[in-house]
Design brief:
Blueprint: H1 6-20, H2 22-36, H3 41-46, H4 52-65, H5 67-83, E1 85-87, E2 93-95, H6 111-127, H7 130-145, E3 152-158, E4 161-166, H8 170-184, E5 203-208, E6 211-215, H9 221-227
Antiparallel strand pairs: 1-2, 3-4, 5-6
Helix pairs in contact: 7-8
Length: 232
């Protein structure tokens, strides 16, 4: 049997949802996003069209499943109240002047303060999209240093995915696969360092976006040769 780590096993279960339950996965997205960004069962009922009973059930399940994330978001709000700002990725500080002058969580709390807290927490989460910029820059430096500058060219970034033009050569593909996975797995920052939720990534190769082949991490030249898309 192929030996896999606990992290690979858990990631495999999560990623399998896209193939096993595509309709449920798609219908869950707007509701999950709404709750993630501070919405409530009422948001799901009014904007998502769920019945009150189902909306409350979904909210309850979300708060139980993502209890750690909910606690983290609340700790951010408490920090904003005390300091008047929140720290985003790589030291960026976002001011929260309204929150620092209010007491949140009661009927007298101004809507503007609640909105600022929601937006600031969203900013913290979204700011870590900069991890892709860091990974792409670090990868490109290593490409140049290794003499692959004309063989592997970065060409695009989309949220959490980096794209390269790579010569049709197993050695070049192996180099990119090894280096990019290392840089995409980087989490050497106190705010994101974790053994429970490690960073992970994988490389897909192909001659068009609709025909991609996933490479194993640390794939050998023989494995790459077998998986390399053939012309025609």
């Amino acid at each position: 049997m192929k030996m896999i780590t606990k992290e690979q096993y858990l990631a495999g279960i999560v990623n399998s949802i896209a193939d096993k339950y595509p309709l449920l996965r798609q219908s869950s997205k707007p509701n999950t996003f709404a709750l993630q960004y501070g919405g409530t069962w009422y948001t799901l009922h009014v904007r998502g069209g769920l019945s009150k009973e189902l909306a409350k059930q979904v909210e309850k399940a979300f708060l139980e499943l993502y209890a750690v994330s909910v606690e983290w978001a609340q700790s951010n709000v408490e920090f904003m109240e005390k300091h008047g700002y929140i720290e985003c990725a790589f030291g960026l500080k976002l001011r929260t002047p309204i929150i620092s002058q209010c007491i949140l969580g009661n009927s007298k709390t101004p809507y503007e303060a609640t909105k600022e807290a929601r937006s600031a927490n969203n900013a913290v989460t979204q700011s870590w999209g900069m991890l892709l910029n860091r990974a792409m820059n670090a990868t490109n430096i290593r490409i140049e240093e290794a003499g692959y500058g004309l063989r592997i060219l970065p060409c695009n970034m989309i949220h959490d995915a980096g794209y390269f033009l790579v010569e049709d050569n197993p050695k070049s593909i192996q180099f990119l696969n090894d280096v990019l996975i290392q840089e995409m797995s980087w989490n050497d920052d106190d705010l994101i360092r974790s053994t429970d939720v490690p960073m992970s990534a994988s490389l897909e190769i192909g001659k068009s976006w609709d025909k991609l082949t996933k490479l194993p991490n640390n794939a050998t030249l023989e494995e790459i040769n077998e998986l390399l898309p053939r012309s025609g």
